Predict the structure.
Amino acid sequence: MPITTNFMGFFKGVDYWRWAKEVDVVSDDSYPDPADPDSPAYGAMVRDLVRSLGGGRPWILMEQASSAVNWRRRNAAKPAGMNRALSYQALGRGADGILYFQWRQSVAGAEKFHSGMLPHGGTETKTWREIEQLGGELAGLDRVRGTRVPADVAIVFDWDSWWSIEQEATPAEIPYVQHAFAWYRELHRRTVTVDFVAPSADLSRYRAVIVPSLFVATAEALGALDTYVRAGGRLLVTFQTGITDEDAHITAGGYLGVLAETLGVRVEEFAPPAGPDLAGTGLAPVPGTAFGGSLVSGGTGTLWSEYLHSEGADVIAAFEGGELDGWPAITAHSRGEGRAWYAATLPDPEAMAALLDAVLGDAGVSPVLPEPVAGVEAVRRGDSVFLVNHAPREARVTLAGAEHVLEPRGVAVVEVDAAD
Amino acid sequence: MPITTNFMGFFKGVDYWRWAKEVDVVSDDSYPDPADPDSPAYGAMVRDLVRSLGGGRPWILMEQASSAVNWRRRNAAKPAGMNRALSYQALGRGADGILYFQWRQSVAGAEKFHSGMLPHGGTETKTWREIEQLGGELAGLDRVRGTRVPADVAIVFDWDSWWSIEQEATPAEIPYVQHAFAWYRELHRRTVTVDFVAPSADLSRYRAVIVPSLFVATAEALGALDTYVRAGGRLLVTFQTGITDEDAHITAGGYLGVLAETLGVRVEEFAPPAGPDLAGTGLAPVPGTAFGGSLVSGGTGTLWSEYLHSEGADVIAAFEGGELDGWPAITAHSRGEGRAWYAATLPDPEAMAALLDAVLGDAGVSPVLPEPVAGVEAVRRGDSVFLVNHAPREARVTLAGAEHVLEPRGVAVVEVDAAD
Amino acid sequence: MPITTNFMGFFKGVDYWRWAKEVDVVSDDSYPDPADPDSPAYGAMVRDLVRSLGGGRPWILMEQASSAVNWRRRNAAKPAGMNRALSYQALGRGADGILYFQWRQSVAGAEKFHSGMLPHGGTETKTWREIEQLGGELAGLDRVRGTRVPADVAIVFDWDSWWSIEQEATPAEIPYVQHAFAWYRELHRRTVTVDFVAPSADLSRYRAVIVPSLFVATAEALGALDTYVRAGGRLLVTFQTGITDEDAHITAGGYLGVLAETLGVRVEEFAPPAGPDLAGTGLAPVPGTAFGGSLVSGGTGTLWSEYLHSEGADVIAAFEGGELDGWPAITAHSRGEGRAWYAATLPDPEAMAALLDAVLGDAGVSPVLPEPVAGVEAVRRGDSVFLVNHAPREARVTLAGAEHVLEPRGVAVVEVDAAD
C-alpha cells in the first residue's frame, strides 16, 4: 500500500528531509490566515517546500479549509474566490490532489466552527457555490496531472540550523523561517520559481542558490557550496552561516569554513542590533544598520549586523553611521567559474531587489512573467502557466502573446510551448 | 436562620441564576477601580444584576472599601466623595444594607494596605469624615428601605453563553460581559433603568429587551423571545445569538432557530474582523466594519461582522467597503404586534445611540431624566429618585419641577409622586 | 585562606549586607548591556554598592566580558573602547583586580557565544587588541592599588525594603532598585561620589544622606536618621519610607515614626497614580502628578503621589490639578542642627536637579568636577581622579588646572594634590 502522512509545511518539530524519504507521496495540511496579507506568498513558499520534499514529484494537498478555521483567536472567513485561488496555487506548484477538512461542517464537537465544503449555512452560500465551481473545473485540468514544476533557483533550508539558531544562548534571536521568507517573498513577487534543497544536495542544476543563515553546516555542506560556485554557480549567502558544525562546535578560524574563501570575507565579530527596546522585535527594521554603496544608496538593514572584513571581495554596500560606520555590509566575489555574494544584514525590500537583480541577472535566471503584476502569482507547471490573482481587484497579464484578464481573486491556466 | 453569601458581581465561575435561588438575601462584594472612568457605569450594571438575581428584592452590599484596595498592581485611593457617591448608587439600585471590609484598617497581615473605615491615618482624614457623614445620613433614609426599583428594559444575561463564547475554538474572542456592558453603558448614560433576566424568563412586563450574544440558547429560550415579540414586545438581538443549543450542538438551519423568523434574517457565514494584529484587541474599533444607511451615516463597528441576508427585514444599515460591502449590518423587522432588530456588529456610540433611540422610542420607554446630564446617574427607587454626580465638578439637574445642584461627587434623593 | 565569592551587583535573592560580613574580599560579576544607554551610570552604581559592601576596602571585579554576552535575547557587542572604559570605571570606584570570563572563547558548550579575551576571530580583532592595551596599562597604575574612594553622600539601601515593596498586596508597584537609580543617576551625572549604607549605619561622616523608599524601617533605623539630622546632617527622604517595621507591621501613627517629626510632615493616605492603562508602566511619567512651587514651576512626577500634610515643614512644591491639587509634593524642614526634605513623588530630571541643588548646596557637598561634562564620569580614588568618557565622541575636561582631551570612550587618570 502507498504510504503518506499529513505534513504541516514549515513544522519545526521534525526534520522533514529525513521523514519525506520514508513516504511514497508527500502530503500537506495548509491553513493560511485569510486576514494576513502575507498568506499568498507564504502559502506559495509552503507548497514549494512540500514539492521539494518529494524531490519534485506531484504531491497531495491533504487538508485545507473552504473558509475559516476555528483555532485562531479571531478566525477570518475566506472572502469570495480565495479558496479557489489558493487551490490553483497548489495545482500550479505541483499538487495532484486537493482535499478538504471537512466535508460537512460538523454540528458538534471541538471542530464545529471549522468550515466545511458543506457549511452550516447550507447550499445557498458562497462557500458551497465555490466548491461546486472548483470541482467542476478540476475535471478539465487532466493534462496537468503528473507534470513537474521547473525551477532555476534553490534556497537551502535546514532543520538543524532552524533548531540551533532559535535556541537560547545564541548571539541573537533570528526567526529562521521568517528570515528565509523575507528572501522568498521577493522571488515570489518577481515570479521566480524556487526549489528548496537540503544542505549537501547536488546543486548543479540550479542557476542560483540562496543560503539564509545556514547556522549549522558540515564541512561537506560548505564544500558542496564552494564546489557549486567554482563550477560556475551563483551563490548568495547571508550572515550567521557556517557558525557551527553538526556537533554544535564552532567552525574553526572565525566561522564560514571554506566558504570564507568562496566569499572572500572574514567575520571578525557579531554585532546584532540590540538594546532594551529591541527584544522580540523580529524582522522589524532596527537602528544602526543603515548602509549604502554601489548597490544602493540609503538602504537600511534589519535583524543583523557584524564586523566583516573583505579579503578580496568587492564591497558593494557598507554600513553607514554608528559603530559599524564604513564596515562592509554586502560583498561580491568571483571564484572559479562562479560568483558569490555575502549579506551581513537583511536588506530592506528595495536594496534586496537591487541585490537580487545583480545575482539573478548574473545567473541568467528568467522569471515566469517578464514584469511582475501586483498581486498576481505566476508559476509554470508542465506546459501550462498558472496565473493566480490574489488581489480583490481585476488584473491584466500579458503572456504568450495574449492579454489575460483576471477577475478579482481570479485564475487562468495558460498553455505555453514546451520550448518557452 | 436567613442565609446569604458574598456574590461578586459578574463572576464567571458560577451561574448565579441557579445559586441565587438558594439564598434568602442576595449580597454582593463590590470593589470598582477608583481610577477607571468606567467604574460608575459598570458599578451600576453590577448593582442591577445583583438586584435582578434576587428577583428585585432588596439586597445587601456586603463588602466595599472606604478607599483603596490592595490587590491591583497600582491601587488608587477613592477621591473625596466617591465612597459616598457609590454608596448612594447602591441604595438607589435596591440595596437595604451597606457594609465595609474592613472596620479598622489592619496593621498586619495580607490585607493591611486595604482601606478601612478607620484608616491608618486615624480620624483626621477624609476617609473617616466621609464615613461619619454617610452613617449620619443613612438614618434619614428610612422611607427607602424595602422599596423596589422599577425597570422597563431587560438585558438577557446567561452564564452558559458566557462560558461557551469565551472557550477556545470559537469563531472569535468575544468578551461577553464587556459586550453586554457596551449596551448597558449607553442605557445608563440616558438614565434608563435595566433589569437583567435569565433566558426563558417571563418578559411580558418589559417594554424592550436586549439580547447581546446569547450564544447558547435552548429552543425554549428562542421561543420565549419570539413569543415576546409576537405579543408586542420590542427586541434587539446582536450577532452570535442562537449559535448552539444547551448541548453545544449547532442550532440547525444556519443558527438563530425560530429567531430567524422573528428577525427576518439569515446568517450565511461569520466574518469577524481578524488578522495578525487584531488578536486580543477586545472592544477596540477594528477595520472592515464601516457601515451606513438610514440609521446613521459613516458609522463604524467593533468586534464582529458577518454575511447576513435579510429575509423580509428592513436593512437600516449596511456594511461599506471591504469584503462585506453592501451586506446588511443592522436590520429591523415587524412580527405580530412587535418589532425586532438585529445588529451584525457592535456599533460605535453614536450609531448605538441612534439604534437605541429607534428601539426605545418604538417601545415607549421613558428615562428617569428627560435629558441626560453628563456624569450624573439617576435611578428611581420607590417614591424617590436618586441623583448621583460621579463627576468632580458641580452639576445641575431639573427634576419634579425643581433644579437640584449637585456638588462634585455629590448626591440628592428627591421625592417624587407615586404617579410620576 | 582568604575567602570570596561572586556577588552580582543588585541581586534581589540575598541580603548582601549580611553576606559581605562573611567574606574577606568582596567580588562582583558585571555584565552591563552595551546597547543600554543607562549602562555607564548603572554600572557605576553597582561598583559603588560593591565597594560599600566591603566597607570601602578594595574589591575585585571577578567577571566581566570582553564584548558580548550570550544570554540576552539580542546580545550587543561592546564597541571599541567600551571594555577599557568600564574597566577604568571599576578601578576608579575601588577595584584592585579585574578578571574576565572567559580567557579563550570556548568553541563548544552553552557559553560558546559569550565573548572571551581571545575571541573566535583570533588576534586580528579589536577585542584582542584592546585586551592587550589594557593589560599593558594596568602595570602603570600601581600607585592606585589599595587606595580608597572618598564619598560625601550616602544612599540608604535595604534588602528588606526591596523584598517588601515588591511583594503583592502593596499600595503600588515600586521598582525599588530603579527608583534608587533614578536618584543615583543624577548624582553620577554631576560627579558626586556616593556610598551605599545599610539602615542603622553610622551616618556621621556623610554631608548628605538620601533615603529612597525605605519601606521597612526599624525604630532604631528611623531614630538613627533623626539623630543624623539633629546633629547637623542633610537628609532627603522619599515616599513609602517607614511604612512597616521589621515584622511587616504598620508603623504606628500614620507611618514614618519619629521621621514624621524630623520631616515635619504627616502622610494621610497613599494615592499612587493608577488606572487600567498604568499597570506595569514602571518609571514612565504618569498623569496626575504635576506640581509646582518655589522649587520649580511646571514639574511633573512619576510613580507616586499621596495626601501629605505639612506639620511645620516648608512646602517647596505642591501638586497641581487633579484630586491632589494644592497638596504638598516636596517639603523641607529644619530640625536641630540639620535639615530634612521629603518628596511625595519622584520628580522629573529638571525638578530633581533643582531639589539636589538645594540639598547638596545646603550640605556643602563638592562634586569631583565643578561642572559636569556630557558623557564623562569622574571619580576620585586616593590621589587620582579617574576620568572616563563613555560617549562615542571626544570630550574635554578641565581638572587641576589643565585641560584633558579624552578620545571617544577614552580615559585619563589625573594625579591631584592630596589636599584637593
Summary: The radius of gyration of chain A is 22 Å. The longest strand of chain A covers residues 285-292.
